[in-house]
Specification:
Layout (H helix, E strand, L loop, with lengths): L4 E3 L2 E3 L1 H23 L8 H23 L1
Antiparallel strand pairs: 1-2
Helix pairs in contact: 1-2
Length: about 70
């Protein structure tokens, strides 16, 4: 995926789109982790959330480049 993504005449870099998708997935995962009480095992929650977002962005990037 090279170049920009055209959404109604506005050009967005692909990384911005990937981060947006990763943010949505991350929000669902964070809510699920909080509901299950798994955050009590995490030492530094904001750092964990940032790492989760970075890993999900990489996963979305990989899947977008592999399948589209």
């Amino acid at each position: 995926m090279i170049g920009e993504v055209d959404i109604y005449g506005v050009l967005f870099p692909p990384l911005l789109i990937w981060i947006g998708i990763a943010l949505l997935i991350s929000a669902v995962l964070r809510r699920g982790l909080a509901a299950l009480g798994l955050y009590r095992f995490i030492w530094h929650r904001p750092l964990f959330d940032l790492c989760l977002l970075v890993m999900l962005t990489g996963l979305v990037n990989f899947l977008a480049n592999h399948y589209f």
